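Running this now, will post back.
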Amino acid sequence: MLTKVLTVLVALPIFLVVIYEGALPMTLLTMVLAIIAVAEMKNLLRSKSIATSSLVYWFPILYLGAVHVGAVWFGLQLVVALCAALLIRQLITFPSFSLAEVGANLLAALYPSLLLGNLLLLRAEAGVMWALAAVIGVWAYDSFAYFIGVQFGRLRPWRDISPKKSVEGALGGLLGSVLVFAVVHGYLRIGLIGAIVLGILVGVVGQLGDLAESALKRYVGVKDSGTLLPGHGGVLDRFDSLMFSATAVYWVWTAITL
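Update: finished.
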């Protein structure tokens, strides 16, 4: 518990400062996180004896680099080209490859790259307050869910995937994310009702992202995706909720600004 708290006290302020600065510092940090997440995906798949290509490391580098210079369409075309390259690689190794291996390579490359890319797009296009609200909202959800779940958690419907998560903790987490968006709604230039809905969305989608990553870990039979963050595990363990929630917030911001 102490290790987990100390990690948050050190890492969260740094992350928030980088988001506030934006531009190149945030791109570089996001790219590093995405590359580490891809490496963690490779390790998870290796636990099931599924081989992955080193091509997957180019997905976050090229896509996030393109996002940084404002060439999102070009970045997506690079992703398409890399997908084609992975398929061609399988042809070269025919008939030793399997369809599961092809899908696993694409998952390892696209899951961290595109979802973390949406956090970068949120900061670049919506602005610093929207990005900070997404990050702090997820952090508040996790914190409220943990402490309320420990104290009052009884109903645990996700035992096979994440046995410590409870309905009571999830409801407490929603309270945390809603409070964050209610407090900052004026800075986001949205109404209070809209902010409450957005806080609920962040909490629900973040929880789904957490459970989705937990399901991957249970499938391959490991507890954590990595060891980068003491007390928290790897990048996927810590950023799974944020990747989903930031994507949802980016979509909402895009919709209301059309």
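Residues 2-256 form one domain. More later if anyone needs it.
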